[in-house]
Write a structure and sequence with these properties.
Layout (H helix, E strand, L loop, with lengths): L12 H12 L1 H4 L34 E5 L4 E6 L3 E7 L7 E3 L4 E5 L4 E5 L4 E6 L16 E7 L5 E7 L6 E6 L4 E7 L4 E6 L5 E6 L4 E6 L5 E5 L19 E2 L6 E3 L7 E3 L6 E3 L7 E7 L5 E7 L10 E5 L5 E5 L7 E3 L5 E5 L10 E6 L5 E5 L4 E6 L1
Antiparallel strand pairs: 1-2, 1-28, 2-3, 4-5, 5-6, 6-7, 8-9, 9-10, 10-11, 12-13, 13-14, 14-15, 16-17, 17-18, 18-19, 20-21, 21-22, 22-23, 24-25, 25-26, 26-27
């Protein structure tokens, strides 16, 4: 029986074989990998803008801001023309969050950079309180990963990776631009989300198969295991959570796995429900639209022949899906304010990345590739 028609309660044979092989090689893999063996592509150089914005010109509305994981910059990207400006923020920027005041908060290996997106100036870089070791590049580097803002903009929450051990959530006072608290969370905090009322913060621990729910007032953490494929593979497993979103309709957490099993987590009870999915691809970045659609980035098969290629899944609230094929691995996604266009970054955390963004028309399904940035990961629409 085809894997897609068996239902979410049955573990796919191919995924089981993959996990078994990786368990056997976990010692050699050390921390394991977060994504599959996608075909490698030679990275292209960061593009130069044909018409860069003058330094004194205000930033136009509708640009994109991408974190250049392959450099020390964020790129301001015109969705039609590509990069029009760059600002130095710190080494290997990963995630970004945008405040209503126009300030962007960017998680780098060196600290959280604060960028005034209206003037394109870095106004601060706040060092982490936690020792993350040498400042380096690459998928396993220490420093900030997922980052989010409270609804009122008073706090920034950044998941900080500490190589070789569990991570932390550092809480920043945005008015004072300083770290005010540190909370223990899972290993390699890929993503951080905040409930609509700001009462809880959710930190996805990639290497610990969990979400840590942190009460915003007491900062008390609660661990919720999220492992629809089990945890037997440990650090060597591919089948771990990456990015999640808070569903607008009911506050449930949505964490997609492998284009097959989105985990729907009730953060109040810690209970997880598994639903079927159709894309059959290793999944990373996720976003939601105002009307409740879930957008999920597929990076490709974990192993050659074990799954479909890169894609963007658009899942409606009723569970119906449309899968848009993409050319090459991608990492994260943002959506336009009108919900009609998706911007998918080509940075990718492993081999096969490219320096650009795929623009997806969600009405027609047409795609176009836009050269932009340097291995862009996190992305927001200004």
């Amino acid at each position: 029986m085809n894997r897609r028609t068996r239902g979410a309660r049955t573990r796919p044979r191919a995924r089981t074989r993959t996990r078994g092989a990786l368990v056997a090689t976990a010692a050699a893999l050390l921390l394991g990998a977060c994504a599959g063996n996608a075909p490698s592509a030679s990275p292209t150089p960061a593009p130069s803008a044909a018409s860069p914005l003058p330094a004194t010109a205000p930033t136009p509305q509708g640009l994109l801001l991408a974190a250049d994981f392959g450099a020390d910059t964020v790129s301001f990207v015109d969705p039609e023309r590509g990069t029009v400006a760059q600002v130095t923020v710190g080494r290997a920027p990963y995630g970004a969050a945008l405040g209503a005041d126009g300030r962007a908060w960017v998680a780098t290996a060196e600290g959280v950079a604060v960028v005034d997106t209206r003037t394109r100036v870095r106004v601060a870089r706040i060092p982490y309180r936690t020792d993350t070791g040498p400042v380096t590049d690459g998928e396993y580097r220490g420093g900030g990963m997922g980052i989010a803002l409270s609804p009122d903009g008073a706090h920034a929450y950044v998941g900080v990776n500490v190589p070789g051990t569990t991570g932390v959530l550092e809480v920043l006072d945005t008015a004072r631009s300083e770290v005010t608290a540190v909370v223990p969370v899972g290993r390699r905090p890929f993503d951080v989300d905040v409930s609509a009322d700001g009462a809880e913060v959710y930190v996805t621990g990639h290497d610990s198969f969990d979400v840590t729910a942190v009460a915003a007032d007491s900062l008390r953490p609660r661990r919720i295991e999220v492992a629809p494929y089990g945890t037997e593979g440990g650090l060597g497993s591919w089948l771990k959570p990456h990015h999640g979103v808070v569903r607008p309709s009911d506050g449930q957490l949505l964490l997609p796995f492998e284009g097959e099993r989105p985990a729907v987590v009730d953060p109040r009870t810690g209970r997880t429900r598994i639903e079927p999915m159709t894309a059959d691809t290793h999944q990373h970045g996720a976003a939601t639209t105002a009307d409740g659609r879930l957008l999920v980035v597929g990076t490709g098969p974990v192993r050659p022949g074990d799954g479909q290629g890169p894609s963007l899944t658009v899942r409606s609230p009723d569970g119906t899906e449309r899968v848009h094929p993409l050319q090459g691995p991608h990492e994260d996604v943002a959506v336009s304010r009108d919900g009609r266009t998706a911007y998918v970054t080509g940075g990718y955390t492993r081999d096969g990345y490219w320096n650009g963004i795929t623009v997806v028309d969600l009405d027609t399904g047409t795609t176009r590739r836009l050269a932009a940035g340097a291995r862009p990961l996190g992305i927001v629409v200004l």
